[in-house]
Amino acid sequence: MKILILTIGSRGDVQPYVALGKGLKAAGHEVTLATCERFRGFVEEHGLTYGYISDDLMKIIDSPEGKALMEDTTNIFRTIAAMIKMARQTAPLKREAVENSWAIAEEAQPDLICFHPKAVLGPSIGEKLNIPYVLATPIPMIVPTAEFPCVGFPDLRLGGWSNRLGYRIVNALIKVSSNKDVRAWRESTGTPLRRNNIDYLQDSGGNPVPALHAISEYVLPRPSDWPKTAIMSGYWFLDASEGWTPPTDLVSFLSDGPPPLYIGFGSISGRDPKRLGDMVIDALRKSGHRGVLARGWGGLDADELPASVFMIDEAPHEWLFPQMAGVVHHGGAGSTAAGLRAGKPTMICPFFADQPFWGQTVHRLGAGPAPIMQKKLTTDSLANAFDQLIFNERMHQRAEMIGAALREEDGVARAVSFLETVAADFSK
User: Fold this and answer.
1) Angle at which helices 87-108 and 122-129 pack, to 10 degrees?
2) What backbone phi and psi angles, to 5 degrees, belong to 352?
3) What is the distance in angstroms between the CA of the first residue and the CA of the last residue of the chain?
């Protein structure tokens, strides 16, 4: 079976899909993974066929305006307002991403499409080629449930109707923001209009769209009111440490004292990465703990490093995290999963979007302190959180229990089986 995976976004929006693609390839399928150009090498080095999508939209996100959007938005309504301000810049780039998606689909001629919510043309391609399509996401924000609020919405504790309302708003926003581009694509390709709006929840015949969530039920139980076509497969981990050799000075640092704390914010560090880096180091000094500070793709930086702090560019989480006393990060779905699988207490300092949701989830599980939004971080609050990560024995026990369960789970294998079942059912 030929499978096309469409995903757009940062590394956290790509890495799980590379893991899924490798699992599909190992099961005997041909896989094309289409994503932003900056990840071409990453996709190809894992043996998958790369499909081109322009990197220009990500360049806007990396711009000072894009970083300000991420740093200054703490809920979905402010995020929407900020995105409206950038609409003129992003509009032609969104259209380009739609066109790129169709071009790679024409080339790959897939038998099934697996699409990230940001890859808005996924359902339309499936309809045009008359093949099954599956929503695949690491974030529970599309399929409605009464059991917890939609990502980005506050928990108003008003009951199930309030929780469901958030999902309705998100799906409506997807339609509003994408219909124009999808309609333009339909006109340019002579594709008949089967319905007025794109819909991630139902196909043109009114049947539920299969929804595959790269989430473990040990972390977030599957809602009982989801349709049978929506599952949580478990996380899609990409273990990239095979063939990777750690720097000798990092190995020496780790062996020269008690396990340190990991602090890193991936592709995000706000508009002032140096200020954030200096704050982290001051908090480590104040609390007396050792730390590994990951510069990451966001460029986290600091003026001077004490002997108790080691700076790295990046290292495979599956190698590094088990050697830590605890982990501190921004709360991306992938980083959260990696910290929990390592069995380490986790402190989340969110910027925006799904990050506060995962911070609250980890805290509710008892595996980490209450999250602190990036804009509210201080040296004192960080130092206090570091102490909790080191000294709270119950937190360590909860984290290790969850980690042990996650290490026994094979989310990729379950996802592969699910996709094969969808394809088989479609052909009946």
Assistant:
1) 30
2) -165, -175
3) 15
- Write down the H helix ranges in 27-86: 40-45, 56-62, 64-72, 76-85
Q: Does CATH number 3.40.50.2000 belong to domain 248-407?
A: yes
pLDDT single digits (tens) 238-292: 987 677 899 999 999 999 999 999 999 865 555 567 788 889 999 999 999 999 9
Residues in CB range of 165: below 8 A, 6 or more apart: none
Tell the CATH topology of 2-235+410-427.
Rossmann fold (3.40.50)
Domain(s) labelled CATH 3.40.50.2000 in the chain stretch across: 2-235+410-427, 248-407
Strands (E), 41-171: 49-53, 112-115, 133-137
Q: What are phi and psi of 168, to 5 degrees?
A: -65, -40
Name the residue among 158, 116, 64, 70 with its Cα closest to residue 350.
70
| DSSP letter string, 243-254 | T----HHHHHHH
Query: Considering the entire predicted model, what is its pTM?
Result: 0.91
- Assigned token pair, 135: 């929503």
- Cα Rg, the chain, nearest whole Å: 21
Helix 15-26 with 333-341: angle, nearest 10 deg: 70
Cβ pair 143, 31 in contact under 8 A: no
